[in-house]
Amino acid sequence: EAKESGRNCYKFYAQEMGRRIDQYVEMENALRVALDQNQFEVYYQPKVNLRSGKYCGVEALIRWNHPQNGMIQPGTFISLAEKSGMICPIGEWVMRTACAQAKEWCEMGFDDISVAVNLSAYQFSHENVANLVSRILSDTGLGAHYLELELTESMLISDSDNMLMALREIKAIGVTLTLDDFGTGYSSLAYLKRFPFDVIKIDRSFVRNITTDANDASLTKTIVLMAKSLKMKTVAEGVETQGQLGFLSSIKCDVVQGFYLSKPINAAALTELLRKQKGHPVVPRESVP
Ligand code: C2E
Ligand code: MG
Ligand code: MG
Ligand code: MG
């Protein structure tokens, strides 16, 4: 009887595995079809430099216009794209699209707008990201200093020797390196010392309560001060209120991004925003130089 139940158990396991593999293959296929049929779209969320009060860049954020299910957010498919390896062709498409768009904005006279692209760990372990970046910059004609790459702390934990080499190569091209979601991972100060980041992006979980929670206010202020002494710039993400913006301005955070300024929007809408604001500050510029 034990044998029989063992067999049943195995049978169940095999069926379950089969189902999972089917779902997995289905998802990979769906992502491949999406890429082939142009169902992905890059949205852009503007960032504002607090010293000038003007737009200084955008973050590229992928969206999936699914023919049946409507607009799908990256939170629901990026991890599947990573598991299936589809993140490589998808990530390449995002970078190419974002760089081509930034080049277009340059040619339209919006030549102070940089574009930030998010990367996944899988891309670093399965392809030469530095080569990819060089190729895309030369294909699109975009100047390297207009491109910023966002990495998270979790990407730095494993295989950090290879990561360090890759980041040094990318940095040598002239691209800006940003540590995204700072404060949510291990936030080891050793990472800041070891890896050549130019920008720290303070996670929105800190920003959320800066006007109500003294600890979050003090942590945020400390991160900004630390970044300054390391000659790094700071971006605060998830800014939703005027109060948060005021506080960030008072502690001399360099750049802000969040729904208070704009949600992520498509390229045409962002172009319209840039047109409307051309030459004018979006928020009052800092009074103290
Ligand atoms: P992230 O890089 O930290 O991007 C910021 C996320 O916060 C975006 O979500 C953005 O819409 C959202 N956000 C911005 N301002 C506010 C705000 O004021 N309040 C709130 N509550 N949220 C705000 P989104 O677009 O859903 O992207 C989620 C994550 O998906 C990104 O987090 C990034 O890790 C990943 N992702 C997006 N596009 C790509 C991509 O092309 N490649 C890779 N590898 N990952 C991507
Ligand atoms: Mg990001
Ligand atoms: Mg982030
Ligand atoms: Mg995030």
UniProtKB/TrEMBL annotation:
Residues 24-278 form the EAL domain. This is EAL domain-containing protein. It comes from Massilia polaris. The lineage of its organism: Bacteria, Pseudomonadati, Pseudomonadota, Betaproteobacteria, Burkholderiales. The chain holds residues 511 to 799 of 934 of the full protein.
